[in-house]
Amino acid sequence: MSKLEKVLLSCFAVASGLYVCAEGQTEAPQNQSNQPSNQSNPPSNQSNPPSSQSNQPVDQSNQPGNQNNQPVDYFIQKDRPPLGRMAVAAQKALPSVVSIYVTYNDVGSEHPFLEMLRRFVAIPRSTAGRGSGVLVSPKHVVTCAHVVNGAKQVEVVTGARKVKAQVAFLDKSLDLAVLMLDVPRSEAPLPYIHIAEYPLQVGEELLVIGNPFGIGVSVTQGILSAGCRAIGEHVVYQTDASINPGNSGGAVIDANGRLVGLPNAILSETGASHGVGFFLPVRSIVYALNRVIHGAKKARTPLVVTAVDPSLQNYLRTGGCEVVFVLDKSLPLSKGDIIISVDGNPVSLEQEFNYRCSTMSVGTKYPIGYMKSGELVNGSPRIYEVWVTAQEQDDPGIKILEGKHPLNGLGVAQLTPDIAGTLGVDPTKTGVIVMSVLPPLEAQLGLAEGDIILVVDNTAITDVSALVEVVKAGQNNRSISLVTERKGQVRTYQIY
User: Fold this and answer.
1) Does residue 140 carry a catalytic annotation?
2) 224-256 pLDDT tens trace
3) Which of 32, 86, 320, 323 has the smallest number of Cβ neighbours within 10 A?
């Protein structure tokens, strides 16, 4: 600032009652308010000496209203706003979510080579894993089957308490397990969550609670992104809430803090969450608890179905499942009929059909909506009430063989007494039975529905998984050998 500018600024400050205290700063004189209103009398003629307040700087640090030297807490607001409904829901559900630590069965203990190798190399005899679970009663925890499948020892951690647990129920087809806790009567009962069973709506707010990566119980928020999906043989719902390794078996809760599902999988190319997560529906949980607590039996699936081909969907202008085989001959259904709904719920996946039928309560009945020959009756499907009977053993699910091999497109299933009785086959027979044959395969191979597959490429076939493995191993071969049985007659094929 030049000398001229300082002079002009000083003149302005005097005229306005201010003075320059530093370059670029101005301030009002502290004793201005104490000057007498009559400026004609000089200060020397005043009878009373000026007060010390006008001649000394004023310390205002303790003056009321001055905030310059207040402690930090003075500026912090500590009143809490009302919690949102999802925060309230989380607080309600958090105590019921537990961490699960698993020791799996011995690694390779049955393999003599590994036993020999252990003499020279430190190979662990067991592996450890972790996941999450939910207390649904003081002594029962539900979790995913893949968390505890093959477990040698299971430990549940809730808060500061560690409790040993036993696997009381495990269903791989549902990816669901129920643990029974060994809680002494002298200890306080564990908190548990309430279960809500109602149709979830797309867009509904959800919270996912679990123990991701073992860092501790955490909460993520999202919505229901889509209804029924199929991952392998599992029926799941889709959510955009973050799900990570360790969340499996935790809780999916609604806005009231009630359990509506278990997180079990994500769709990811990197292993990290990308907003496409899946959870098991609560209907599976209710079914499993009825099996464990009340000894309920698994309901029998009355039909073997497969998803309707997309071209057929366009022709029929509807989704659904096509009947491949009728297990319950009391039903007015036959091969080729289209199942539209089960118990009022539309079905378009074979996994969804099997899931809804198998989780019904034995002794009740439910409506099946279907079409005959692709025609609607009075603009709506036909309805038939199906009585739910108990399943004595697993009913077959159809498996379509796929790959670069001559059996591509062949539909097979595990042979059961129900199928054997229907087809007039010896009920003591075991193995794999042909359930569906595409027209080109039927003409080329000479196979027919009801044929029992005995041997493939010199390997005895006892179940569907064995057939899949053998076919997969030789899928690049140009030919395949096949031995089948039809009405007691054994046939041998060499298929190219």
Assistant:
1) no
2) 998 888 777 778 999 999 898 888 899 999 999
3) 32
